[in-house]
Structures are given as C-alpha cells and as structure tokens.
Write a structure and sequence with these properties.
Blueprint (H helix, E strand, L loop, with lengths): L1 E2 L15 E10 L3 H12 L2 E6 L8 E8 L2 E8 L5 H9 L2 E9 L2 H10 L4 E10 L2 E9 L5 E6 L29 E8 L5 H10 L4 E6 L10 E8 L6 E8 L6 H9 L3 E8 L3 H10 L11 H8 L7 H7 L2 E5 L2 E7 L10 E8 L9 H14 L5
Parallel strand pairs: 2-5, 6-9, 10-13, 14-17
Antiparallel strand pairs: 1-11, 2-6, 3-4, 4-5, 7-8, 8-9, 10-14, 11-12, 12-13, 15-16, 16-17
This protein binds fe (ii) ion.
The site of fe (ii) ion has 6 residues, from strand 10 and strand 14.
C-alpha cells in the first residue's frame, strides 16, 4: 500500500473546492417501482418522494429513497425510445448519476469544462413555489455523469415535479440505520485506470489517497489494481479498479464485459453499528457474500488483541480489518439485479480510514466463487 499526498493538485477554482458532499446516486433501472421497493426492503431506506405522469413528468418514473444523509434516486423510462430505456438495455440496472452537492453548480461546471470535462447539462435553475434548485452536469466514465446540485434554496419534496402522495408500501422493521455513502468503487478495463485517476486529479481537483497493485490484491486466479481518489476533504471517495493479468478472467473484466464498459461496481454505506444493521438486513432477507472457510480462524488469530464480539461477528459473517489508526468492519451483498454488476457494502469505521485491505483476498475469493457459478471464471 502506498499513501500519497499530491501536492501538485490545486483545488482552488476546481469542482473539488466547491463540493459539500454527495447529493444523490441515481440508478437507471427497468422498473423503478419494483427496484425502489426492493431497495427499501433490503436496505431499510425510506421512500420519500415520487415523480411521474401523475406529477407532470411524462417520460419517466422516479422514486427518492433516504436514510440519514444517504440519498438514492431510482428512475425508469416510460418510453421504449428514451435514453433511460436505452441505458438499461445496454448496461442493465446501473448507477447513472453520481450527483455531487456543490455551493455553485455553474462555477463547478465551468471549472470542470475548462479543464477538459465533456459537458452534459448546462447550468440552469429549476423552480416552483417551494424554491429553486440550481444544477448542471458533466460526463465522467462510460455512460456515467456527475451532476452538480445546489438544493439549499429548495424546501419542497426533493425537487419540482416530486410528490409524497401515493408512495409504495414496504416493511419498516427491523430498523437498518444506514447513515451515508462511505465510498463508491468504479471498474475499468485494463489500461484505463491511470487516465481516469488523472482525470479526477486534473478536472475535479481530487487527490490520490491510496493505491494498491496486483502484489497486494490477488487470488489464485486473478488480480487487480486500484487507486483511490478523493476530494481534499474526503467527502467523495472513489476507488478506481482495473484488472491485472492473472491465470483466469478477472472479476473486474467480468464486470466490464457485462456492464458493457466502465461503471459503478459497489456502493459502500456507512453505519455506526454494523452488527445490528447486518442482523436487520439478514432478517429482511438480504444475502451477503460468504467469507472463505478459514477466514475466521485466520482473522481471530491475526486480530486476537481487538476486543470484539467475535462469535457474533462470525455468526453474522462480518469481515474485520485492522490498521494503525483503528479497525473497520465490513460486509458485501450479492448483486442488486440480474447481471453481475452493482452490489453494496456496509461498513463501520472505528478509526480506520482504509478499505479493508486485509479482507481484499477474502472478498475476491468469494466473488470468484460466484463468478465460477456463472461460468465466467475461465
Ligand atoms: Fe469498498
């Protein structure tokens, strides 16, 4: 592992200097009502707003889901010729918009475009009787975009065109308590990682937090490289992965082949209490990737000094990693949809700022076991 402070990155006048946090992640899916219900049920999110034909939005249906500071928007196209429907046909259900809350969407847009970003949505305002939302967007990797949003001047339900009427019903208990997005990992083809790391540095003003190479992330069959980029305040943290040569087809390559290009692989959500969170999610029927057979034997020996409820941790299948600054606990769900692309991580940090490096091998062995079932580990 190498830790870098990039002193050459100047954030002043770049989007990074204007970011206040995540605004939302927008999924484009085949059936928004079904996916919103599935996410609310599995992750304990609250469905807080809806937009569609009933609210004057004729080409799509969108549901907003929230828990703490975490906000997802799930959208489906209503027209066979819409760009949403085309996106779903190509990628399956996936994450379309990595939307960033900024103090000034016009300045963020202009700064990014001046440094080479491809414009997607010119700066504009959306208004109704509840106030104003200022927005713009640029393209990032693949068919993914970064929205820039300022909703501090808006006091209605999410955005103009949204309502709290007629929301789908879903189970409320047991409570899950996810708090916020911790990080979001994107997968790329071999050779694409470095150019996109540079894009996040030069266009966005992000820094390199950490990098890992194939000597650190490999299994018997495959390997990958990863560089973690983040804004200087570490509000937006994005590990960027690419496959490295291995004996068999990398899980990263399986993702890129299946998603038809680079895209979001997993969304890590922070909780303050992972054991009750995972217990609640298991009660709600969520399935997680199983740790390899000897994992707990190894980790209980390796981290024997950590005073943790090891029996409970093992029973729930939660992974543990230790770092000089503290430890973290994490677990990974199975894929969200039919294609082996997007999945979720739940993470609790007790001082540790890394990504569970000690668990990478366990995670990748578990993913390869699923990959083999799909006939894609060759
Ligand atoms: Fe992660």
């Amino acid at each position: 592992m190498t830790s870098t402070t990039d002193t050459t990155t100047e954030t002043k006048g770049r989007p990074a200097g204007l970011i206040t946090g995540w605004d939302a992640l927008e999924f484009w899916v085949g059936n928004a009502r079904a996916t919103a219900g599935h996410l609310a049920s599995m992750l304990g999110l609250e469905i807080t707003a809806y937009a569609g034909p009933e609210t004057g939005v004729t080409d799509r249906a969108s549901y907003v889901l929230e828990s703490g500071d975490l906000r997802f928007v799930v959208t489906a196209g209503l027209d066979p010729d819409s760009e949403i429907t085309a996106h779903v046909r190509r990628h399956g259900d996936g994450v379309r918009d990595l939307s960033l809350a900024v103090t000034d969407p016009a300045s963020a847009f202009e700064a990014a475009v001046a440094r080479g970003a491809v414009p997607h949505l010119e700066p504009h305002e959306v208004t109704d009787e509840h106030g104003v939302i200022r927005r713009s967007a640029i393209r990032t990797f693949g068919d993914t975009i970064h929205g820039f949003v300022d909703r501090t001047g808006y006091h209605g339900d999410h955005a103009p065109g949204f309502t709290t009427e007629g929301l789908p019903t879903y189970p409320r208990q047991p409570a899950v308590n996810l708090r916020r997005i911790d990080h979001l990992t994107a997968n790329f083809s071999a050779g694409e990682m470095q150019p996109w790391v540079e894009w996040y540095q030069q266009v966005m003003g992000f820094e390199i937090l950490l990098s890992f190479d194939e000597s650190q992330i490999s299994t018997e069959f495959s390997a990958l490289r990863s560089v973690v980029v983040a804004d200087p305040d570490r509000r937006i943290v994005i590990p960027i992965n690419e496959p490295a040569p291995g004996r068999r087809r990398s899980q990263i390559q399986e993702y890129v082949d299946t998603y038809r290009g680079p895209g979001v692989q997993h969304i890590a959500m922070r909780t303050d209490e992972i054991l009750s969170t995972v217990a609640a999610m298991r009660d709600r029927g969520v399935r997680f990737l199983d740790a390899p057979g000897t994992y707990y034997e190894d980790v209980r020996q390796r981290l024997a000094l950590l005073p943790l409820p090891w029996d409970r941790i093992e029973q729930l299948g939660v992974l543990v990693d230790d770092e000089p600054d503290g430890h973290l606990l994490q677990i990974f769900t199975e894929n969200l949809g039919d294609r082996p692309t997007v999945f979720f991580e739940v993470i609790e940090r007790a001082g540790a700022r890394g990504f569970g490096e000690g668990n990478f091998k366990a995670l990748f062995v578990a993913i390869e076991r699923e990959q083999a079932k799909r006939g894609n580990l060759y």
